Amino acid sequence: MIEATLVLIKPDGVMRGLIGEIIKRFEQRGLKIAGLKMVRVDEDFAKQHYIEHVDKDFYKSLEEFITSGPVVAMAIEGVDAVELVRKVVGATEPKSALPGTIRGDYAHVSYAYADKKKISIKNLVHASGNKEDAERELNLWFSIEELHSYPNVHELHTM
Ligand code: GDP
Ligand code: MG
Q: What's the gap in Å between 131 CA and the centre of ligand 1?
């Protein structure tokens, strides 16, 4: 039941000064940060990360976006963490993301607008879509030595 998942604060979140605000959302929910680093992604790495999207129309703009500045990568652990983190992050399209979610509180643009402008949807965060993706993405982004095991207060007080 305890799962680990990958979260990225994308270049828009880093450049907008929202690193602390975004990390806070996961900490306040009681999730554990097991790994954390800042990385500048190149085109090859972007293709490995977004392997399921490389043939799609929006891929070129997605690659331009994710390589446009550093990202903050996090390994996040908790009970049913993959599904829970997606819920905290909100819907992919900021226009559809509910208030209270990261994307719903800090972005508003629609697919139609982004596609017309030939830009990627700037939605602040990536979160693994399912358990298989989470395992593959964590292996891609983190070495074993970069993932840390430690007790946090939630294991005493909320779990
Ligand atoms: P996510 O798992 O919620 O991030 O969404 P996806 O895996 O479906 O897509 C990956 C990323 O590609 C999204 O977070 C957006 O930044 C971008 N994206 C997805 N769909 C579209 C689209 O239809 N148009 C544009 N412009 N960008 C998109
Ligand atoms: Mg996805």
A: 18
Query: The domain 2-142 is classified under which CATH number: 3.30.70.141, 3.20.20.70, 3.90.1150.10, 1.10.1200.10?
Result: 3.30.70.141
Cα separation, 102 vs 60, in Å, equals 25
pLDDT tens for residues 4-53?
999 999 999 999 999 999 999 999 999 999 999 999 999 999 999 999 99
Ligand 1 atom nearest residue 115's Cα: 26
Is the CB of residue 111 below 6 angstroms from any atom belonging to ligand 1?
yes
Residue 126 bears catalytic tag = yes
Do 93 and 81 meet the contact criterion of CB atoms below 8 Å apart? no
DSSP per-residue codes, 49-63 = HTGGGTTSTTHHHHH
Q: Hey, where are the domains in the chain?
A: 2-142
Nearest listed ligand to the Cα of residue 8: 1
Ligand 1 near 86 CB (within 6 A): no
pLDDT in tens, 105-116: 999 999 999 999
Q: Give the pair of three-digit tokens for residue 159.
A: 């779990």
